[in-house]
């Protein structure tokens, strides 16, 4: 079982990223061969500052390692270090239709009314994402719910490649967590918690101070009822139930039973405390890891060497199948 996922180096990672994705990466190390990549090339598809990009890449690396990724038990690397991703992206363009790319929700959202002005990179973003996974012939891709369409597209691309050029690529499966695939904004519980949403009040960053976390949970938007249970019009409470279930490794039903007699205020405090306890060791490790950029670079280098062995073998097969370059 080979598992692959990528994560953007932009912005601060939030609780949705941790529960929806990072926790699954960590668990994947025990289930199979995990490959985890910080996608710096994807980050160049929107306006960005080069110096910032490197700094945010280190931040993200330190968060992932602090959360439990172990470079000895997985292949942990930076996308830009392995050239095969960009080459495969181009080669896969031949079996990707313009129409499919033009229908991608994330492209439509990010491009907004500026479709003609955004970078072509933003348009090709999903092809590079497909290349990330297909280069390793990964079987499974752990991501949050928002990546569904991108995974469907990469499956289509792999199938189209195989039927056009012969069986070469593995068609990967989507793996989304049972609880927490879609953590919602605390201030606006009908919207997902997102790096790009305005205002930070509804978003818990994994590096937030305990006092800030408590304040954000205490002011989370709920409803006019009083029962701690899921239901129509209770998106805010349902979200807090999901968060607590994910953080404690239990089910939403169990949380509802445990808090059947609690008031909203006490429940919010309990969620905040559980999140603070969960994040404390991660934050402590983060500070240590982030301070040593040379060590982070060394980890990237080691990971890229391992990744490249796998990716270059796939690329040789892809080139051969497509008739590109000399006969092998
Ligand atoms: P990004 O930071 O956009 O690269 O996202 C990293 C991972 O976090 C992806 O697998 C997303 O699907 C996942 N993710 C992002 N937002 C949420 C959310 N609100 N709930 C659950 N998972 C999320
Ligand atoms: N697009 C993904 C996101 O925004 C990040 C990503 C890039 C990715 N390449 C990937 C996820 C490959 C899974 C597999 O979260």
TrEMBL record:
Keywords: Aminoacyl-tRNA synthetase, ATP-binding, Ligase, Nucleotide-binding, Protein biosynthesis. Its main location: mitochondrion. InterPro entries: aa-tRNA-synth_Ic, Rossmann-like_a/b/a_fold, Trp-tRNA-ligase, Trp-tRNA-ligase_bac-type, Trp-tRNA_synthetase. Its EC number is 6.1.1.2. It holds the Pfam family tRNA-synt_1b. PANTHER family: TRYPTOPHAN--TRNA LIGASE, MITOCHONDRIAL. Belongs to the class-I aminoacyl-tRNA synthetase family. This is tryptophan--tRNA ligase.
């Amino acid at each position: 079982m080979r598992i692959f996922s990528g994560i953007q180096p932009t912005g601060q990672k939030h609780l949705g990223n941790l529960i929806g994705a990072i926790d699954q990466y960590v668990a994947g190390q025990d289930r199979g061969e995990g490959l985890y990549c910080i996608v710096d090339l994807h980050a160049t598809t929107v306006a960005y500052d080069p110096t910032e990009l490197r700094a945010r890449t280190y931040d993200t690396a330190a968060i992932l390692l602090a959360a439990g990724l172990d470079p000895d038990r997985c292949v942990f690397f930076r996308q830009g270090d392995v050239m095969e991703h960009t080459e495969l992206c181009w080669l896969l363009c031949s079996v990707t239709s313009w129409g499919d790319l033009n229908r991608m929700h994330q492209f439509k959202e990010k491009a907004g009314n500026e479709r003609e002005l955004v970078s072509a990179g933003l348009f090709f973003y999903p092809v590079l994402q497909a290349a990330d996974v297909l280069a390793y012939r990964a079987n499974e891709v752990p991501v949050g719910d928002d990546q569904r369409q991108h995974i469907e597209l990469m499956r289509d691309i792999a199938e189209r490649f195989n039927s056009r050029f012969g069986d070469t690529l593995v068609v990967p499966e989507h793996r989304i967590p049972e609880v927490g695939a879609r953590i919602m904004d605390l201030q606006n519980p009908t919207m997902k918690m997102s790096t790009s949403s305005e205002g930070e009040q509804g978003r818990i960053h994994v590096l937030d101070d305990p006092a800030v976390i408590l304040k954000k949970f205490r002011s989370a938007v709920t409803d006019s009822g009083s029962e701690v249970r899921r239901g129509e019009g209770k998106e805010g409470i349902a979200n807090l139930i999901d968060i607590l279930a994910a953080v404690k490794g239990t089910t939403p039903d169990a949380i509802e039973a445990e808090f059947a007699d609690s008031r909203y205020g006490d429940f919010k405090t309990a969620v905040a405390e559980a999140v603070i306890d969960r994040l404390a060791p991660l934050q402590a490790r983060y500070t240590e890891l982030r301070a040593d950029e040379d060590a982070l670079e060394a980890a990237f280098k080691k990971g890229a060497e391992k990744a490249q062995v796998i990716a270059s073998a796939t690329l040789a097969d892809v080139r051969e199948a497509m008739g590109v370059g000399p006969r092998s």
